[in-house]
Amino acid sequence: MKNATLSTVARFLLGFCLCALLACGAGAASATEISQLRVERADNGIHLSALVRFDIPPVVEDALLKGIPMFFVLEADIYRDRWYWTDPRVASAARTIRLAYQPLTRRWRVNMASGLISNSAGLRATLNQNYDTLPEALSAIQRVARWKIAETSDVDLDATHKLEFSFRLDLSQLPRPFQIGVAGQREWAVSAQLKERLRLEPAAPAAGSTEVAK
């Protein structure tokens, strides 16, 4: 009887430990954070700069190493406050970034283009760059430098505006078998969104930054 009780307690403790480990693993999904946000007003438009901090999940890195490219989407919308009706959107911009591993050269390639893939025939990249390591490629993706998101005339300085900025891994661009397998899985989640009042700052001198045309 005593042995049976000890066995039951042992099974209970083992099950509890396994549940705890699974919970820790689920909660360990890397968070995506938007920081160092700056919106500048210049003569040639409204420019957004930011740092998007995230770690590539192991399952995503494994897929990359198998030759499956990943697409990241940045979207920025500016709304003018209107107390009597829905806030109208006065400006909108999008950017698509393709990250791929090249097995023959063992290098990482980043293609950056304006707009969404669904809105054009493929990815018409305006910036292409190769990197020796994945961290170097990710660093290029994470830093948003003076991205033009609106024309200067789109924003009325006498009105109050709101900014919505988002960054996400676009799972809809994965091969269809992958889309079915990753649906709803937190391990594939790389996304962040920021909503705040638009605060325009004077443009700082551009020093060696690479800008993608709108």
Largest sheet: 6 strands, antiparallel
Indicate the percent of residues in helices: 10-25%
Question: What is the residue-averaged pLDDT?
Answer: 81
- Helical region count? 4
Total E-strand runs: 10
Strand percent estimate: 35-45%
Distance between the termini: 76 Å
Shape: globular
Strand order of the largest sheet: 6-5-4-3-8-9
Cα Rg: 22 Å
Structural class: alpha+beta
* Number of structurally distinct domains: 1
Which blocks of ≥5 consecutive residues have pLDDT under 50?
Answer: 1-29, 208-214
What order do the SSEs take from the amino end to the carboxyl end, as H and E? HEEHEEEEHEEHEE
Secondary structure layout plus pairing:
Elements: H1 2-27, E1 33-42, E2 45-53, H2 58-65, E3 70-80, E4 89-102, E5 107-114, E6 127-131, H3 134-142, E7 143-150, E8 161-169, H4 176-182, E9 191-197, E10 200-202
Parallel strand pairs: 1-10
Antiparallel strand pairs: 1-2, 2-7, 3-4, 3-8, 4-5, 5-6, 8-9
What can you tell me about this protein's structure?
There is one protein chain. The chain has one domain. Helix content is 23%, strand content 39%. It contains four helices and ten strands; from the N terminus they run αββαββββαββαββ. The strands form two sheets. A six-stranded antiparallel β-sheet has the order 6-5-4-3-8-9. It has a four-stranded mixed β-sheet with strand order 7-2-1-10.
Features:
10 strands, globular, disordered C terminus, alpha+beta, disordered N terminus, six-stranded antiparallel beta sheet, 4 helices, four-stranded mixed beta sheet, 214 residues
